[in-house]
Design goal:
The structure is a single chain. About 25% of the residues are buried. Helix content is about 20%, strand content about 35%. Strands 12, 13, 14, 15 and 16 form a 5-stranded antiparallel beta sheet that branches. It has 8 helices and 25 strands. It is an alpha+beta fold. It has a domain of about 300 residues: Neuraminidase.
Length: about 450
């Protein structure tokens, strides 16, 4: 950075010198040539000039004209406009920004500013190169137990071998299985044995343990989660849905819903699910809502419904689904480029991926791709779409691994991770690196 600024300034200086009129000389003479006559001076005059003390005025003029050099001989850095510094820092990864907080107090203040944090997050979310996006991978191994790692999303699409980094967080134990609830604006929500919930920024290495709920689960009860952001209230919220069978299977299921607000730092109960109970998948966060595929009972039959919870109003509504073809089976929700998507499976034939381009508008449902059935062992069941590259290649989550599908070439390929033969992948979640802290509120004002 320093060499760049000096080079620009010196180049401009040379351009000024080139544009200046040359000093007039006598005809047929060149500056510095041996034939050029120089004014003669006597030896006494030269001695007097050397011994004559230099005036203070001349010293100050020389010091003003000649910039002081540092110990290594380089010129001092030139100051950039604040707008340029702001724009340069916006494009840097979080790890670099954390180091640059030590450069100066103004830089530290700028990087911690809420407006800068918001702009940096927006830049990361809209980056088509995926340079600031990563994938959380929850793995289980017979030998080493459970662990959560992360890798670059870009490397999955571009590199044949993917390197992973271990995610560190409080209360981590290899012998225990922790569940990734979801991600939002660089924050990760992790459920630990369904008793403890943790908010974590893995890049900042800052975490917050949520207060205990103090709720005794009934026998046969299972828990479904959701994590998202309420933009109108500038508040992150965690939703826990306790599902249990009411009396008998014919009577269906009931639910109790609790919501945690980061702004108030407490749990409270809200209206129960109006359309049955959600599946075991966590709610998908899109535009300030959490969305679940729900098993509902209508007309003595069970059907799949998409239920949305508005995090601002804390009210439910049913999301209209696309027009599937005959034989449509299981439906699994996902998020692609910030849009709600549905993977609809047609047995062991093929699966369709539908994307809702404008949330809440039925006419915006668009069929993105039809994926043929693959007989690869361990990849028989389609699960959640995770991401789409610029070239149209789709990253899919399967039961034990991930799979890339190229619609143009109609080809599958498996990204290689550094795991042993006894390891398998339970969960994957895409997130972007950010400066958002789980312990600070009002970061988006």
């Amino acid at each position: 950075m320093l060499h760049y600024s000096v080079t620009v300034i010196r180049t401009n200086k040379f351009r000024e010198m080139e544009n200046q009129e040359p000093t007039p000389t006598q005809p047929n003479q060149r500056l510095g040539s041996p034939s050029q006559e120089l004014p003669s001076t006597s030896s006494n005059e030269q001695t007097q000039k050397r011994n004559r003390p230099e005036s203070p005025q001349r010293k100050s003029d020389d010091s003003a004209q000649s910039p002081k050099r540092s110990r290594n001989g380089s010129l001092p850095p030139q100051s950039f406009p604040q707008e340029i510094i702001f724009e340069i820092l916006l494009n840097l990864p979080v790890q670099s920004l954390l180091r640059f907080r030590c450069v100066s107090k103004p830089w530290k203040s700028l990087i911690a500013d809420n407006f800068f944090i918001k702009k940096h997050l927006k830049r990361a979310q809209n980056d088509p190169e995926f340079s600031k996006k990563r994938v959380l991978i929850n793995t289980s191994s017979i030998q080493t137990g459970s662990s959560i790692k992360s890798c670059s999303l870009k490397s999955i699409f571009e590199d044949p071998n993917v390197n992973t980094t271990e995610i560190e967080y409080p209360s981590k134990k290899a012998s225990r299985y922790d569940w990734i609830v979801g991600s939002c604006n660089g924050l990760i929500c992790i459920a630990i044995r369904e008793d403890t919930v943790l908010l974590l920024n893995p890049t900042l290495r800052v975490s917050k343990r949520l207060p205990d709920l103090g709720f005794k689960k009934r026998r046969g009860c299972y828990t479904v989660y959701g994590f998202g952001f309420d933009a109108s209230g500038d508040d992150y919220k965690v939703v826990r849905v306790f599902c249990y069978q009411s009396k008998g299977f014919e009577d269906g299921y009931e639910s109790i819903v609790r919501v945690y607000s980061m702004r108030t730092n407490c749990w409270r109960r809200i209206q129960d699910f109006p359309f049955g109970v959600p599946f075991s998948e966590a709610g998908k966060h899109v535009d300030g809502t959490l969305n679940w595929a729900v098993l509902s009972r209508q007309y003595r039959d069970f059907s799949c419904t998409i239920v949305s919870l508005d995090l601002a109003q804390e009210t439910y509504k049913e999301v209209t689904q696309p027009c599937y073809g005959n034989g449509a089976g299981e439906r699994i929700l996902g998020v692609l480029d910030g849009c709600l998507c549905v993977l609809c499976s047609y047995g062991r034939l093929y699966a369709e991926v539908w994307v809702m381009k404008e949330y809440g508008k039925r006419e915006s449902w668009t069929k993105l791709v039809t994926i043929p059935y693959t007989p690869i062992p361990g990849y028989e069941m389609f699960l959640t779409p995770l991401s789409v590259s610029k070239s149209g290649e789709i990253l899919l989550r399967f039961e034990v691994n991930m799979l890339l599908y190229n619609p143009e070439k109609n080809m599958f390929r498996i990204p290689m991770f550094p795991y042993d033969a006894f390891s398998y992948i339970d969960q994957q979640e895409v997130y972007e690196e950010s400066l958002v802290s789980p312990t600070v509120v009002n970061q988006h004002r």
